[in-house]
Amino acid sequence: MVYQQQTIAFICVAMIIMIMNCLTINASPVDPKDYIEKREANDGHPTGHRATRQIASDFVCPEEDITNTGCEGPKDCLYPNPNNCESYIQCTVNADQVTGTPVVMSCAASLEWNDNKRECDYPENSTCPSGKK
């Protein structure tokens, strides 16, 4: 009986040590960029945006893009904002299905427009010309 209790105690101690090894925390340095949330927004817009309803009066939505895509895809009819790297222009299709209304959409804090990916991205990946921030 004593032998059986010692075996059970040994097995329990061994299990505790294995569990503790599994729970060891890896304390590696953390990059703050990992905390900037970049994911597909629930409303279908590109990553990391904040909606504004500012009309870009100096921008004309390309009719060819509207005709070809209907601006239905999540990355259709999105263009760089020539006035600000921290935002982009989204064209919404007008009732005539030919023209569009250009709406300025702001990127989330610390992000800039990447026209290659058609989404807001980290500044080092931005396609924005220097000096347009």
Brief characterization of the structure:
With 133 residues, this protein is of the alpha+beta class. It has helices at 2-22, 63-69, and strands at residues 49-55, 78-80, 87-93, 100-107, 112-114, 119-121. It has a four-stranded antiparallel sheet with strand order 1-4-3-2, with no helix packed on it. A two-stranded antiparallel ribbon has the order 5-6.
Architecture blueprint of SSEs:
Layout: H1 2-22, E1 49-55, H2 63-69, E2 78-80, E3 87-93, E4 100-107, E5 112-114, E6 119-121
Antiparallel strand pairs: 1-4, 2-3, 3-4, 5-6
Q: What do you see in this structure?
A:
The structure is a single chain. The protein has about 130 residues and is of the alpha+beta class. The chain has a domain of about 70 residues: Antimicrobial Protein, Tachycitin, Chain A. About 20% of the residues lie in helices and about 25% in strands. It has two helices and six strands; from the N terminus they run αβαβββββ. The strands form two sheets. A four-stranded antiparallel sheet has the order 1-4-3-2, with no helix packed on it. The protein has a two-stranded antiparallel sheet with strand order 5-6. Strand 2 and strand 3 form a beta hairpin. It is globular, with a radius of gyration of 26 Å. About 15% of the residues have low confidence. GO terms for molecular function: chitin binding. Keywords: Membrane, Transmembrane, Transmembrane helix.
